[in-house]
Amino acid sequence: MQTMCIEEKKVAVALERNEAFWNGGLKDGPLIWVTVPDAKQGTPPAEPDEEEKMWTDADYYVSAAEDRIARTHYAGDALPVCHPWLGPDQVAAWLGADMTILPKEFTSWVKPFVDDWSRFTELTIDPGNKWWNLYLNLLRRCSEAGREKWITAYPDLHTGIDGLSAIRGPENLMMDMIAEPGTIHKAMGQMTELWKYVVDTVSDIILPYGQGTSNWTMGYSSKRFLCIGQNDFTCMISPQMFEEFCWRDTVECCGYVDHTIYHLDGPDAVRHLPRILELENLNCVQWIQGAGNPHPSQWLDLLKQVQDAGKSVQVLYCPTHGGDADLSKELDVLCSSLDKNRLFFWAVTDSVEKADALIDQVNG
User: Fold this and answer.
1) CB of 32 within 8 A of CB of 234?
2) Which domains does the chain have, with CATH numbers?
3) Does the model's pTM come out above 0.90?
């Protein structure tokens, strides 16, 4: 991986430490990604006349990515990542849903369209699908523009049970799981194959550029590294239903790539953690405590549970999630209480001085 945003020696160290994290050989941890947006002067490109074009106009998107990455300060093990996407409901749109994208709010939403499963027996992506082709064009452009600049990331893939929830509607899906379990088992099997198809398609585009891989959780690997736990719907179901409808999909996705991180989203998802920790090929669990809940340093028992199972753990601090935390205190508590060599500390802060102080704290 190469980039003009960070000095060569620093990149070499970051690459070595990132790879060591996934291989269980990290020393003098934690793996620490700290970035400072807008740390350098620059002139962002003029916004397009329609908000949707901020994501769908490839020329604008690439120019905005180049500007954003060039003006970011990367501290510790952080590397520049470009994450082209069309919002969390893009998979549902690839399957045929009408989608509204709101780039300024960093989201998208769809209208469920499956009204009768007998009319939708095969869940596949039409090669002519508008949103699929928009995404692939964006991905290709970002990969090409990212030569010696950044890592082009795998997409945020809400397939599996989240994908079914998006195209069917959560209330209807919950009823289907009780009334038509066989139908949902079949649909989940198709979603697993869809996930593999997307991963393979994206891999064929990004890997030849030799920049390695990442995803929205950050982190780096020269091999295929993905977030496999985009299962927000599981916050609404029991461990028994998770076992019946989601376990096989999770196992297959986890075993299909080289390195994996599971997105554990909030206290309502914790009920599934014991089973998740049994995933043989899972490397890391990302803990998201949820709005209004204590910062990661107050969840030590849970984080230790993850590490005691032989997995690493990632914690996140950004303006919309844990941004009010005392990062120095958080880092101190976590490093002194956990196995710091299996800790991934990811933070976005507002000054170079704060970012570099955190790195000095680790190295001190």
Assistant:
1) no
2) 40-71+80-213+224-257 (3.20.20.210)
3) yes
